Amino acid sequence: MLRVLPYLLVTGVWAPRQVFAQAALSVTPAYAVITHDRPYGAFVLSNRGTEGVEVTIGAHHGVIASTDSTTAVVLGEAGRLGDLSRYLTFFPERCILPAGGKQTVRYRIHEAPEGAHITLLHFAMQERGAIVDGQIPAVASGLRIVYNLVAPLIYLQGRGMPVLSARFLEGTPNELHLYLENHSRWPFLGGVRVIQNGWQLGSAEAAVYTTRVVRIPVAERPLRGPLQLKFDSNYTGLSLAIRHQLGVPDPIHLHWN
Amino acid sequence: MQQWILRTVLIFTMIRAASAQVLMEVPLLLEFPGREELVRAWYDGEAFLVDGEELFQALGFAVQLTGTGLEALDTRHRHTFSCSNPSAPPCRIFLTDILDVLGRALHFDQNRLHLTASSAASTFDMRSLRARQRSWTEVPGPHLFGRTRSIWGGMMASWQLRRDAFGVHPFFRFTGSILHGSVEAELSDGASWTYRYDRPEKVWLTQVQAGRNARGSTEFAITNVPLARRRLHRMRYLRGRSDPHALIQAVIRGEIVDQVQADAEGHYELSAPVWYGTTKLELRTHPLGGRRTQSDPQYLFTPTSMVPPGKVFYGLRIGEQHANLHVQYGIHPRWTLRSALARHGVHPEASVGSTWSPVTFLAVSTEMQVLSAHWQTGFQLWHSGVQVTARLNGRKRHFQNLHMTASAGRGPVSALLQGSMSSFLSPFNERVQRLSLHPAVWLHHHGGLRMQAGWESNWLHGPFAEAHHRWHFGAGWMFSRVRVMGFATRDDIQSAYGLEGIFMLGHSSLAFRAGWDADHQMMTGRLSFQMSSPFGSLSARGQRDVRGITHSQQIQGSVHLWDRVQLAPYGIQQSAVELRIFEDLNGNGLQEHTEPILPHIEAELFQGGWTRLRTGALYAAHLEPYQRYQIRILEASIRDPSLHPATGPEFSFTADPGQRKILHVPMQRFVPVTGMVTGLDRTPLRLNILLDQEKEAEVYRDGGFTLHLRPGRYTLTVVDILDQIPLAEKTIQVDTRPIRVVIHLGEDRR
Fold first, then answer.
1. N or C: which end of chain B has fewer CB within 10 A?
2. Chain B contact for A100, CB < 8 A?
3. DSSP string covering B387-408, please?
4. Is the ipTM reported for this complex over the cut 0.90?
5. Tens digits of per-residue pLDDT, B160-193?
6. Which CATH homologous superfamily contains domain B575-668?
């Protein structure tokens, strides 16, 4: 036991000193919808962590879309929505954020044609870490983990109306999984309500650019029979003017087996 | 033999002397919050020595070299060190000696050759280091935003014409900056003028004043009292506990004066400067994990009668009929002695007194006049939004007057209680006592309901006992452009009921007050109108007094003649600032006629609010002279991503007394320069890019870097931040299009 004691002491002293710094990047707002009346805006990057971070910012044509099983970022394809990245300028393209630091990323849209357009602003983050004198360059550049954040930027010019179709994927006593598909050139951002026999079973918010699986919490499993999906324009963070411009699709009638 | 001994001794001495000089010079990285600096240091194989002059100057001390050592001085400290070899400059001091004296304020990492200054250091003035750091960024662009002095400038003539029952009264006032000082002249019933020369940075003479008052008496005055809040009084150390690893910030007037990361147990220690008067300190806690930031306001109160320890403040005023000299001396951070000598005509007077502040939010002052035996004492308390002030005076053992004011506020509700008690001899030589109480309550929401209620009672005790009561009540609603309030008031002469309000439309406003005097059965009221345009403004006011006895009409206005001279309304001599954010098309930093103000860009003025002028500029008035204000350009409001403020998004300026200061913020279009450092032989995180020998950008992990430059020719230097060795250099030419640069450490080596 006496032989073990020094090791225990060393371990006891050493363990609390192993405090690792880490970066924690956040982007606000999480998405942005802008119109022809005000074709500019800004995202704010904040590093609330305890270590510096370097961020590379890019804009890619793409959407957040779902298959039956997953929801993921899809690049190079955005259904019938236009590519906004070719009309977009933003600043800066790279930045270094110290711990506690903030950076405003400003953007502006130049002469985009009529319709709805989307781009994904991509924030690729790498921790900067402490400078170690004896670090080998190859190892330093090899040991890196890139964290990615994506914020959709949607630009609306003119009027449009989303056209949606829906089907149920599965249901649990607490949740219904709904697959929504957008067939129009106009995105849908708003609320989805599930109604049966005049009673609202549950509701959720959804952004449907092409396809999207929406999980709707419900109080109880629906009864076998007809169901109605109603849509509204209530989506967190949208102004009233944008809600009016986005529009609300017609209700959809489904059958629950 | 003697020669051999002599040679041996000589060689031994030479070897000793030579070995004593074998010191390896090493660069020591000194780091304090927000800044890094290299200082010279040496290693003799056993101990480290550092260049004392360089180190202490970097730490904000004034350094005096004595014969064998060095003295480091600032406003609160004096440290003495001896040089290791006084005969061979520079003065090298053993680092262990410095660490012994400065204690935990410095941490020395021998392996990294890194000297870190604690942000909570008490053995040197960390705040002044930060202030100096800010002052470097105070001159951000082509314009100096410090105090402006001019031989001839800032002229303003104010006028007012008033007619009442006693006739027509013209007022004329002139202010301006002449011979690097400020001058103020007034012409109404009598003529008066004052010339003031301020030296706010100086210690022994901060202001000289000469003038003539309205009674025709000439005066001359000098003082070294700090002007406004320019001078710091003391540092306050704040210790506390929060969530583990939370970011804690001390914020004063919107400016972060200190920030630390709490340790694993949540303990933290911050320092914050405290100025004269009330310093509002906000303690912000940012917990990790994105939880909501908490804010805890604190009020630090330092009465203006307190003098920093060891300092002497004086004021000397000499006139034709009188002269007086005031001297104050701080013998302790919480105790100040005062004395005064005065002469009024042929009557001399002397007084002594002191101010004592036993705890931060309480101050007690006393003063005694030696010859006349008059005394007065004061009491001030400020804590948790409650302020109490009381003054008591008398002669010998007789009490004469007591004045007391107490106020408290919480949210939209605030309450005030004023009271006084006097004892005096009536014309019939009887002692009479008078007691007055005046409570009042306000309810003021930021938008919406407003309510005011007040009561005043006066009692006279003695042979002619009397009691008088007054009350006032008002309630109304405040909209964005209209404020309307109904009122009812009752005093000894009349009862009046009515409505008052203000309508605002653009830059014009109409204010009215209409009431019915129930006792005199007549209408009373007041109407005022104000309008402004780029060419001038006009304000007119007519009033029929609520007591139905007097009536008056008044008109005042301004005419803008040209930029430097304007005729402005009477009473607008306060310090103000006008912020002109414009697109600098030709990049010269000056606003031309073809370079318009960008009216959509918003800016934040800490401790102040803006008004948007019709020209698109932002305007803020009622600033405190000599106070440094921070401005932040809100980047999100800049529509064009390629436009950048040449001043940087944040900068500060110093408000000038009695002048409207115009700040130009050129918005310039920068060209992006992206680059890559190749041929790396060390980690890219160690590399910085210097632009014409000034630090400009850090290098990313992949060797890339980005710069945003105005068109021109630049030299880029790659430097290792650890050893400060320039590794490579490249000259680039930037025109209007983005460019890409590759710097190879091997091929572009200097």
1. N
2. yes
3. EEEEEEEEETTEEEEEEEEEEE
4. no
5. 777 776 777 777 777 666 777 777 788 877 888 8
6. Outer membrane usher protein FimD, plug domain (2.60.40.2610)
